[in-house]
Amino acid sequence: MAPQARFFIRKSRSKVVVKFDPPISGKYILLKLWSPQPEGNIDVQSIIAYGFAGPRYFPCVEPR
């Protein structure tokens, strides 16, 4: 599978927002975080996903 998004957070910023157009749907989220420094640290405060939860998952589509 190919990545859906790649991003870089500049030193002057503290957050990033990734919006998909068109919206994507899925059951699982896989995050891989790399530090630019060899011995660097990554502090994650929160990861927020918006959508449906429960036994049935519906595709993320917009009405015509």
Describe the structure.
The chain is largely without helices or strands. The chain has one domain. The protein has no helix or strand. The relative contact order is 0.24. The model has no long low-confidence stretch (mean pLDDT 77).
Short description:
With 64 residues, this protein is mostly loops. Helix content is 0%, strand content 0%. The chain has one domain.
Q: What order do the helices and strands come in, and which of them pair?
A:
Elements: no helix or strand
Taking pLDDT < 50 over at least 5 consecutive residues as the criterion, the unreliable ranges are none
Tally of individual helices: 0
Assign the structural class, choosing from mainly alpha, mainly beta, alpha/beta, alpha+beta, or little secondary structure: little secondary structure
Helix content: under 10%
Strand percentage, roughly? Answer: under 5%
Cα separation of the termini: 29 Å
Biggest sheet layout: none
* Number of discrete domains: 1
Envelope shape:
elongated
Number of strands: 0
Radius of gyration: 15 Å
